[in-house]
Write a structure and sequence with these properties.
Number of strands: 0
Number of helices: 5
Shape: globular
Helix content: over 70%
Low-confidence stretches: none
Order of helices and strands: HHHHH
Radius of gyration: 19 Å
Distance between the termini: 15 Å
Length: 140
């Protein structure tokens, strides 16, 4: 089953929601290790309270979950062999881009080379799938 352009765009949006929110979640949960309780159930409840009452954590978390919902809905009509590589690979790229924008150290030339290779591979997958949808023969 080949994917339409709309399905591919939905998968890219999923990757953006997943990858773009990871650095924000990491930043918002930075003080979590300072929460200490005597028993593990109380520790769990206190950590959940700390996270979910923090809007800097809650908003990216909800966006991330919207990405998961969109992924679930898109999987019903998209080829799994296309959906998984697009979402997981591009999520890493979006994580690196947003992390860099937030001032995180995301690596040097090797990270850039990895992103370029990832984007090349995903472009080949998308081009192959979309051209099958439009009835054009694929050379891949």
């Amino acid at each position: 089953m080949a994917a339409s352009l709309g399905q591919v765009l939905a998968l890219v949006l999923v990757a953006a929601l997943w990858g773009g929110t990871q650095p924000l979640l990491k930043r918002a949960s930075a003080g979590l290790e300072q929460v200490h309780e005597r028993t593990w159930p109380r520790q769990l409840l206190r950590e959940m309270q700390t996270l979910f009452l923090n809007t800097e954590y809650l908003v990216p978390f909800l966006l991330n979950q919207c990405g998961s919902l969109l992924y679930y809905l898109t999987l019903a009509s998209t080829d799994l062999t296309l959906a998984v590589p697009i979402c997981n690979s591009l999520a890493i790229v979006f994580t690196l881009i947003v992390g860099k924008a937030l001032g995180e150290d995301v690596g040097g030339k090797r990270a850039v080379a990895g992103m370029i290779l990832t984007m090349t591979g995903i472009t080949l997958c998308i081009t192959s799938s979309v051209s099958k949808t439009h009835g054009q023969p694929s050379t891949f």
